Amino acid sequence: MRRGLRLDLKKEATLLAWTLRRAAPPSKVRIFLNLPGAASVRPCVEPGESVRVGQRIARPAGPHTVAVHASISGVVSVLQKFLHPYGGEAEAVEIQSDSKDEKIPGLGEERMNWEDLSPEELKKIFQESGLVQMREAMVPLHVKAGRGIKNETLILNGCESEPYVTSAHALMMSHPVEALKGAEIFRKALGADRIHFVTEDNKLEVAELLQSKVYFLKWKQVDTTLLPALYPQEDEQVLGRQFQEADGKSPEILDVTSAFAVWEAVARQKPLYERPLTVGGECVIEPKNFWVRNGTLLETLFKNAKGLLRQPEKVILGGPMRGRVQKLLDIPVLKGTTALLALPREIAGGTGEEEPCIRCGRCVEVCPVEISPVMITLAAEKNLNELAQEYGAGECIYCGNCGFVCPSRRPMLELIRRVVS
Ligand code: SF4
Ligand code: SF4
What we know:
Blueprint: H1 12-15, E1 20-22, E2 28-32, E3 42-43, E4 50-51, E5 56-59, E6 68-69, E7 74-83, E8 89-97, H2 119-128, H3 141-146, E9 153-157, H4 167-174, H5 176-190, E10 194-200, H6 204-212, E11 222-227, H7 236-242, E12 252-255, H8 256-268, E13 274-280, E14 288-293, H9 298-304, E15 314-317, E16 324-326, E17 339-343, H10 345-348, H11 362-366, H12 373-381, H13 385-390, H14 401-405, H15 412-420
Parallel strand pairs: 1-14, 9-10, 9-12, 10-11, 13-17
Antiparallel strand pairs: 2-8, 3-5, 4-7, 5-6, 7-8, 13-14, 15-16, 15-17
Helix pairs in contact: 2-5, 5-8, 12-15
The structure holds iron/sulfur cluster (SF4) (2 copies).
One iron/sulfur cluster binds next to helix 14 and helix 15.
């Protein structure tokens, strides 16, 4: 049985015009060099130094780190620790724009012989171009490609099941060939035999469009599967379970936005410094999908969408189910940020007090990884961490389904995080 939630998707506002808009470059960006507590990278610029778009501002400092690049041209104003959108602090570079948007030489131009590069050369380009999985976890793509085993499938993940979020949908509609070519490059780096494109059954037009473009590839083995539009269909663990290889291993999975970034880095010499992002929610005047420079502040993004109609109850980086609630607008987006939402009180919830568990079992029914949220959280409340682990707390993918359906409004995610962290 497939578990998940059929949510009210609320995607019409941004899909009415699915074109990806390009806003003016921001006047300031704050670019984090890594996640809080993660292995650091080596900054290679100093305050006062001028930089151009695409210029490297930090070098990788180990096998699990990637280079970081300037997303605007201007002057480095600060290099210090800042509050990170995921909590805690991390080192970041702030750049003040010179309004010239001057790019490094060669950026966007075709790379000579890119189709003949070896898997090792491709992985080196991934690392030097700052490529990471463009979802919350931001796993470096050279690390993902390095896990490859021969004869396996690459799943090209075109699912996008959280309400409001349509940035991947818009990208697939506007750049289907580039996304497919990026997947093909990643397949080669991975050493997989075939590409399998998956999306949800409410994106039939996307599936047909991509399938119609497969003839642009040298490698024409691309199958397509439509899955039920259940949340959290796009989660890699959930998808991996559905497409297990005959030997029980999960296939490697690459989301379409990352595939597009692979194509840009390898074929067009463009490091990862911008991404498609949905600015949405009922409090936004003109919800839209934009190309957004890495490190753009939330307040700037809301201005790009003509501002806010009313005071939001919640501002969320990512989707409403598993995104990160932000208290400040002086916070930047990251390479893994899919959306910025401003939700009013009647949508964001927050009404009613938490009550005791009534053992209704709804949380168990909707858990996509088939663990027992009720038993984990009851153990967590009593600080019985080992018992919580026995009930599978470590397998939680933090999708938020259990908290969403709980009639007692118990803080399920908060309790689970307490025993896992
Ligand atoms: S226990 Fe974890 S994986 Fe299961 S529904 Fe809750 S948040 Fe999702
Ligand atoms: S959904 Fe809430 S009330 Fe029902 S069993 Fe789970 S934790 Fe208890």
